[in-house]
Amino acid sequence: MLRALIFDFDGILVDSEPLILELTQQMAAQQGWTLRAEEYYRDYLALDDRGIVERLYQSHGRRVDRARVEELVEWKARAYQQLIRDGLPPQPGAVEFVRGVARRFPLAIASGSLRAEIEYLLGKLGLREKFPVLATAEDFKRSKPDPEVYLKALERLQRLESFRAKPLRPAECLAIEDAPGGVESAHSAGMKCLALTHSLPAEELRHADWVCGSFAEVDLAKIEAAF
User: Fold this and answer.
1) How far separated are the first and last CA of the chain, in Å rounded?
2) Same domain, 205 and 117
3) How many domains does the chain have?
């Protein structure tokens, strides 16, 4: 049976991907490189900030400069914090969906964003208390599509009082994603995955167990029946 939901954050709960794309393009420009939007959405969408910069180096045939990577990651974090100080718009239906499912299931976030960014933006949406578990960039070494962040979220969910008597298993979790790398990460962790086409067309998310255009299209009863 379905016992917990684990959400990606950027592009799923908040409409942040266009802003992250812009900052990623600015990071590339600082190195004299260009990054097209279609490249970002195809190759960078599921990565954390460090993974994004390392991928930029690799895609331009350059040896990764670890010190410079850290400088660019810190620059992006500072710039992003300034730009989100008034919050970001939620994805359509996200707030209502979260409030609804939080009445029935423990919720977690598994994201490559920084914890402070996620907590701040959730607070702006009035949703922070709906997520007792966060697994964020500080908690893992390997970005999606590696399953590490989902396994970390699972580990923390298992500590909740709800699962003391009967431990939560990966197969009892539903991941909600917007990128192929995220879908692969969830599947590798042993979880089923719902993909939303907020960032990419359905064809590119075809490996998910379910694909919907928005939260309004999600038939949770149908999904639950598959668990």
Assistant:
1) 5
2) yes
3) 2
| Residue 217, domain extent | 4-15+88-225
Taking only the tens place, the pLDDT of each residue in 100-155 is 999 999 999 999 999 999 999 999 999 999 999 999 999 988 999 999 999 999 99
The amino acid present at 206, given as its one-letter code, is: R
Q: What is the pTM of this model?
A: 0.94
Boundary (domain end) residue, out of 59, 83, 107: 83
